[in-house]
Specification:
By secondary structure, the protein is mainly β. The chain is built from one helix and 23 strands.
């Protein structure tokens, strides 16, 4: 007998939360212990937060590993009323989980992701693929497309990159990023920082900062990045270098781009 499925529909609670059910099989682990094993997860978007999180039916959560929070935070999540500490193999992670007071989400528990907040669960999987930092947004698209535009990048009037071989990354909600071959970038003007970040769409990035020995410039740290081993969907950017449009001057085919303002924009130090 065939089972019926419904197309997820985005809904809004009086508290301002947006949510929709997901048909993905999601698991969350702390070390080798599976804390969440859910075939009925719910994606939740909090007001003002650009990325979603998951909430899970209590029946699909190891509630025996949760303890009422000893030091619950205030104002951390939208309308959250109950926080839990997570105890696994004698290790306690404070405020690793919480519930929302919204009637629509009654009976669900949400978890922090360690790679995003420094607490919560270490590893997350959608089906058999590990995902990082936060869930993928089904309403977001990321495309990496090889191009031939002439891209020039300047810092304080100095050309630091000049290329006719960019890969353009179009990501919903963000400015177009121009990934350039290393041969077309003056990487000698930068120094590696050892900083790394994870992205559920692209993988793990490494970073470079402007080297002050090459002249003063009001540039935030980690202004250049690269994905040495990107996820398959954006394999075209492997090893290429990108700059924060928010912090440098980029000219494309002779047109100077305005510096965008995004959640990556950092005030001058």
């Amino acid at each position: 007998m065939a089972t019926s499925s419904t197309v997820p529909s985005l809904r809004t609670t009086p508290e301002g939360l947006r949510w929709e059910p997901s048909e993905r099989w999601v698991r969350g682990r702390k070390g080798d212990v599976t804390v969440v094993d859910s075939r009925h997860p719910v994606l939740v978007w909090e007001p003002g937060v650009p990325v979603p999180l998951y909430a899970f039916p209590r029946a699909e959560v190891r509630e025996d590993l949760l303890r009422p929070a000893k030091n619950p935070p205030v104002g951390t999540h939208t309308g959250s009323t109950v926080f839990y500490d997570l105890e696994v193999d004698g290790e306690l992670r404070e405020n690793a989980a919480w519930t929302f007071p919204a009637d629509d989400l009654a009976g669900h528990i949400a978890f922090e992701w360690f790679q995003r907040t420094g607490r919560g669960l270490d590893h997350w999987y959608e089906e058999e693929e590990e995902i990082f930092v936060h869930p993928r947004d089904p309403h977001k698209r990321v495309d990496a497309i090889a191009g031939s535009r002439h891209v020039v990048v300047e810092i304080a009037g100095r050309v630091v990159a000049d290329s006719h071989r960019p890969v353009l990354v179009f990501e919903t909600g963000l400015p177009t990023r121009y990934y350039l071959p290393r041969e077309d970038v003056r990487l000698d003007l930068f120094r590696p920082t050892g900083h790394h970040t994870g992205c559920p769409y692209k993988g793990t990035a490494e970073y470079w900062s402007w080297d002050g020995e090459h002249g003063d410039a009001d540039v935030p740290p980690d202004v250049v990045w690269s994905y040495p081993e990107p996820l398959p969907a954006v394999g075209a950017i492997k090893g290429l270098l990108a700059f924060y449009n928010e912090a440098v001057d980029i000219t494309v085919d002779g047109e100077r781009l305005a510096r965008p303002v995004t959640h990556f924009t950092r005030p001058p130090s």
